[in-house]
Amino acid sequence: MAVTSRRVARVVPLAPAVVLLALFMLGPVVWSFYGSFTNAALTGPAALNPEWIGFDNYVALVGDPDFPKSLWLTVVFVFLSAVVGQNVMGIALAGLLRSAVKPVRSIASTVVVAAWVLPEIVAAFAAYAFFHSEGTLNTLLAGIGVTGPDWLYSTPMLAVILANIWRGTAFSMMVYSAALAEVPPELTEAAQLDGANGLQRLTWVTLPVIRRSISTNLMLTTLQTLSVFTLIYVMTGGGPGTDSSTLPILAYQEAFKFAQVGYGTAIATVMIVVGGIFSVIYIRALRPEVD
Amino acid sequence: MRTARFLIAPVTAAAVALSLGACGSGGGGSDDSTIKVAYQKFGNFTQADELFKDVKADFEEANPGITVELVPIEAQQNDYFTKLALMNRSPSTAPDVMYEDTYMIKSDVEAGYLAPLDDYLAEWDEWDQFVDSAKEAGAGDDGKTYGVSMGTDTRGLWFNKDVLAKAGLPEDWAPTSWDDLLEAARTIKESDPDVVPFNMYSGKPQGEAAVMQGFEMLLYGTGDTLYEDGKWVTGSQGFVDALGFVQTVFTEGLAPTPQQALDTNIGNTVQAEWLPEGKVGIALDGSWVAGNWLESGVAPWPEWSEKMGTAPMPTQDGQDPGAVSMSGGWTLAMGSGSKNPDAAFEFISMALNRENSLWFDVANSQIAVRTDVAEDPEYTATNPTTEFFTGLVDVTNFRPATSDYPKVSNEIMVAMEAVMTGQQTPEEAAAAYDEAVVGIVGEENTVQG
């Protein structure tokens, strides 16, 4: 009896949060999942009476040449800008800034964090202005006599990947700064006395100690990057053609530009699955041997 | 901790799904003492906004106790349709009166967004002033009338006489075939490489403007069409040829660069800047373009009538009837959920009475659909191109009047963009279009062209 009432007492304070999460997080997911099995649309007969069409949306998705391309672009975007770019840049900056003198550290971290505190739409316009054919980058290149290409048009993926690294590195840098501060100095000093060089100390001492921060950070940046929409939409609109249409852009286009909400939600469901797969990989790969 | 981590994935993805899934219907909200009027206001197009502001004042004076709430939607054409559709899905946001493109009417009727106006029109003594084609343009598939036409339009070639003169082309230039047009564009390019010889809208960002002002002006000049005897045409040579024209102008540098052409603002830029500044030679565009340059427009240009020339868009090889045009137009429609349909119709009838129709047709360079407006000297005198564009009515075409058209139109934008960016050849893009159309309307509703 006492056990039951204690259990109830523990659950009660959680209830409002659970209800809110279910309503505003789980609800839309379930609704989106349901919508992906209908032909819901914004106009035409299907807008009035959406019909249950089973797996038709998914079958159409598999047969749609835009879809595998979009899936691939999404994986490339996430891998290069989040997994490689933001994480490696983040840890490198955090490490370098630890040993830098104070003014350098303040200035550098302010510059990096500035990109992170900008609202996404402002950051997206800044990146657009930077990579535009007559933008900052090409003006600078022209100053040294180089004619830059039209980045947003000829190399749209490169442009959005660089922009996302610029925007997101601050987050990883802060996570890793905190993690590195927690590495016990005795460990690195001991390794140094044993004759380990800088790279060896990083590989064998620092990284294993901060591995849990790495896995958390990898997962957060991956999932944030997976759902990046504004940055790409403002910079390239998913174009030219479909050359930078990642899954969020494709889903938006199908659901809202082409009014096929059911089809758009099917793409959103695929995104949930992709996010889930990434999460499982991180949790498995970086599972701590000892807790 | 493990479970918490697992939750992060669906929760983050849910943030995206949220925007897609959360468009169900909401609770009721608007009452019968407020009339909500939704319309587009974007870039150079501010005429509807001015019209409705005036009508709001008059309406509220005539109907004390009823408030008109204006909802200008600041979005480009395709986004306007999306936002309007989203508003229509929820009773708390659904407008009572909306500015509706004729090509969306049939589709939106089937979606249940619009209310039939027949009972009101039967009692409106001004309805017989509207020409028959305008009445048909507002009809749904069930034969009832859902929209009252504000004006119609045609499309043709605009050209800057100074630019053409520099290239040695005459002031009364009028091409007789596509080759003729392309030749003129090449001549302009040679005479001044800094000028964009020819502008046509193309690609997804331009939406229906690309399809109607661009692609269909080409396709309907080849002898092929999109839709024939109730079936969608696939595999026609005209479709491939029209895409071939798009490919030619964009790969030869006769048009704006693809990146310029894919900028959502190019329509505003061409009309308000490039044409007046002589940065574009020839522009394939609508009859309403001159509205920008009138005193009431956003880019007044008093000399425009001397500097700008017009010519009909030729057919592919000059085959009969020699020229081609497309017509559309916008209407005012009533929302099916209106709590006060009597007041909503009164607003529509006030906005489109003789005086207001005249003002809108003149300010927006529309072709009048009310006979009393068409005969008005003020209408015929203000704009010297009115006569030319009204004359194109003889060779004009209308878009397929079916509820599938908006979806098919999207596939045409996709094909155009694929060709202009060099991602597909015209043949490949046409094949992809054929496949998409079969997917939309079903094999049984298509016919081999």
UniProtKB/TrEMBL annotation, chain A:
Chief site of localization: membrane
Keyword Transmembrane among UniProt keywords: yes
GO terms for biological process, alphabetical: transmembrane transport
Subcellular location: Cell membrane
Domain ABC transmembrane type-1: 72-282
Transmembrane feature ranges: 12-34, 71-97, 109-131, 151-167, 218-238, 258-283
Pfam families: BPD_transp_1 (PF00528)
Keyword entries, A-Z: Cell membrane, Membrane, Transmembrane, Transmembrane helix, Transport
Gene3D superfamilies the record matches: MetI-like
InterPro entries per UniProt: MetI-like, MetI-like_sf
Gene Ontology terms: cellular component: plasma membrane
Entry superkingdom: Bacteria
Membrane topology: Multi-pass membrane protein
Statement: the UniProt record of this protein carries the keyword Transferase: no
Family listed: Belongs to the binding-protein-dependent transport system permease family.
Protein name as annotated: Carbohydrate ABC transporter membrane protein 1, CUT1 family (TC 3.A.1.1.-)
UniProtKB/TrEMBL annotation, chain B:
Top-rank lineage group of the source organism: Bacteria
UniProt keyword annotation of Hydrolase present: no
SUPFAM superfamilies in the record: Periplasmic binding protein-like II
Keywords: Signal
PANTHER family cross-referenced by the UniProt entry: ARABINOSE-BINDING PROTEIN-RELATED, BLR3389 PROTEIN
Pfam family for this entry, one: SBP_bac_1
Protein name: Carbohydrate ABC transporter substrate-binding protein, CUT1 family
Signal peptide stretch: 1-22
InterPro entries reported in the protein's UniProt record: Bact_solute-bd_prot1 (IPR050490), SBP (IPR006059)
